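Consider today's protein:

***
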Amino acid sequence: MNKALSLNWFDWFLIIGTTVVSAVSSVVAGNWDTLGFIVAVTGIINLVLCARGNIWNYAFGIVYNAIYVYISWKSRLYADSAIYLLYYLPMQFIGWFSWKKNQNQESGAVNAVHLTRRTALVLLLVAAVLIPVFAWILGLPAIGDSQPWLDATTTVVSILAMYMMVKAIAEQWYIWIVLDAVQVVKWTIATVRGEEHAALMLVMFAFFLANAVYGLIQWNGLAKQASARPQP
């Protein structure tokens, strides 16, 4: 059996848990949030399949990213909206072709690699420079972003994490853990403010955070398997 297509109990827990909690949240609120529900479900399937090294994560990623552009724009998280539209969404197609070339034919999973020290240093320096710059720009009165520092952080971290995903670097999951934790904080604030779709986004990112921890464990295993194979 194709191991990348085989889901275990925790995969199903994340998918079913996100689906059920999202549905219940809408019912309790008395206002069915169709867009929030779709983006939550497609988003968790996208990341569960990614954690398994399954190339089909990108099919769900296209739907998730497209809808999230609209939701984040309505919540005045302009950097989030822009980065998902101009970077995240196109990278779904780039990632598909990149993983297709780097797919293990036996297991069906992508061949993961570990991050080098040089690349890690470069990524950290990029984040250290870009986050304050983005925060300053988003905080300008002409833009009026509702959460400039949090929005800038998730924007820059998203760029780095997506690059590492396309390159199949196992340590990408450390970045996803940080990103999802920040997103939980950001959407908690938005939920308290009563912004539309915010409650479902909070639920979604809470499950995303759990999946990121799980993905780190899985991809360390994939990288170990890839390094153990004899090189042609």
